[in-house]
Design goal:
By secondary structure, this protein is an alpha+beta fold. It has one domain (6-74). The protein has helices at residues 6-15, 28-41, and strands spanning 22-26, 51-52, 55-59, 70-74. The longest helix is centred in the middle third of the chain and has 14 residues, at 28-41.
Length: 77
């Protein structure tokens, strides 16, 4: 995936038929890019937790997720 955008993330979720049993983790730079795009589209308003189509979007703080890639995390215990 190139630079991560709101539309790109929506398509990623829809194409993979993801449900709220997962969360998506992004590299901090990619997370920032997505948040900025989201704010532009939604009039500078953002929900907490940050979700797109009911899927929580998290910032990776472990250094494990490369820039411009998405890690799918299983949220079911």
């Amino acid at each position: 995936m190139e630079k991560i955008t709101y539309d790109g993330m929506r398509n990623f979720i829809i194409e993979r038929e993801l449900t709220d049993s997962v969360a998506l983790s992004l590299h901090p730079d990619s997370f920032d890019d997505l948040v900025m795009d989201y704010l532009d589209i939604n009039g500078n308003q953002i929900e907490r937790p940050f979700e797109i189509l009911g899927i929580e979007i998290l910032q990776d703080n472990t250094g494990n997720v490369p820039k411009n890639l998405v890690q799918v995390l299983d949220m079911v215990g």
